Amino acid sequence: MVERNLVNVLLLGGGFMLIFTSFQTLGNIEQTIIDSIKTDLPSFTGDGYTSLAIIYAALSLSNWVMPSVLSAIGPRLAMAIGAITYCLFMASFFVPHVVLLYGCSVVLGAGAALIWTGQGMYLSQCSTGDTISRNSGIFWAMLQMSMFFGNLLVFFTFQGKTHIDETTRSIVFAVLIAVAIVGLVMLTCLRRPSANDGDVPVELGAEVRPREAFLNAIRLFRTPRMILLSITFVYTGLALSFFSGVYGSSIGFTNAIGTSAKQYVGLNGVFIGVGEVLGGVAFGLLGTRTTTRWGRDPIVIAGGVLHMAAYFLIYLNLPNSAPFGNTDALSYIQPPSAIVAMCCSFLLGLGDACFNTQCYSMLGGVFKSQPAEAFSIFKFTQSVAAAASFVYSSYCGLHVQLVILVVLGIVGTITFCAVEFAVKRERPTLERDYEK
């Protein structure tokens, strides 16, 4: 018989997969879509990078009150409310207006804080110390399957198009909203986590009042261990904004790739998804074994190496001006190679899975007594970095952005490993105390 908490994790992963099939696809093509809207509607002055920056800025600020909110309404209701905001944001594209776009971006940022903090707390409630790595891997693999379906839709509907007309845009928006609504329904089917599935679940600590939950988050953020991990979280935010918004647009804007450049924006998302799912499955199936035997650091180091290789190839393949709009400029590989671009997409996805599955495992295992606070801090630092990245993406060329990613990637890998080494040193002591 399949354990009840595993069913909950599968439902959670399925709901997020559908919701983010919609949102990640839209985020991947937002700048490209808005560029076409401006051509049809010159009075529209919205900007995709600005919209995404607003989303992540609102998300980062909202995360500080999320432990208080979750202590009042619980993670399941929080995730349902958050999912509704994603549907509203996507619906706003049917009526292109700059105030509506940026207003819905703010609402979505708050909703994203709800859904992600709720997800982290709920996943911890459904896990034990022995199953947190497995459940994190399963959830991450299912979530990243979202990169396939929406981006395949984009690949086929954008086929042969250098301009995305209003009819094509409307079809894509309608399909994405319908898929998100199905995901919302799945999240409403989540059941209360069971405490009778074998091992003792990850501890949640005593119920706390909203004000105390907020103060606990502040205290946790100031601990040396969380400060070090926050550097890793910042890097994951920079990487997220790069591959989810900047890199795909850069491919689409590079005219030298050919008339299929806009199609490759969608195919880029598919290859990122392949890497994400492969990493999630591998670390989901092997996560408990590898974490127990070698720890989390080898996986994070592997992720860092994969990302460094991807950044070097992107530097060689795409021109510096690619993030800003259609360009005829060239880089070192002439003409730019679509095959190299898709290989980089795969490496970005696989490396991101290495980082995020281990961050989830670390937060759900090491900070098991304060899951809401820990995941709030994770999403706060990640979102601040993502918002900052989308701001400087409008001004900094591709090469400067890659340098920033390389530096923070190296530092973030080192700080994560430092915390993991400390956890390893504590483990034998805890085991001896338990035996006594």
From TrEMBL:
InterPro entries in UniProt: Ion_channel_UNC-93, MFS_trans_sf, UNC-93-like_regulator
Domain of life: Eukaryota
Keywords: Glycoprotein, Membrane, Transmembrane, Transmembrane helix
GO cellular component labels: membrane
UniProt keyword Membrane, yes or no: yes
Transmembrane feature ranges: none
Subcellular location: Membrane
Membrane topology, record value: Multi-pass membrane protein
Principal place of residence: membrane
Pfam families associated with the record: UNC-93
Gene3D superfamilies: MFS general substrate transporter like domains (1.20.1250.20)
Family named by the database record: Belongs to the unc-93 family.
UniProt-recorded name of the protein: UNC93-like protein MFSD11
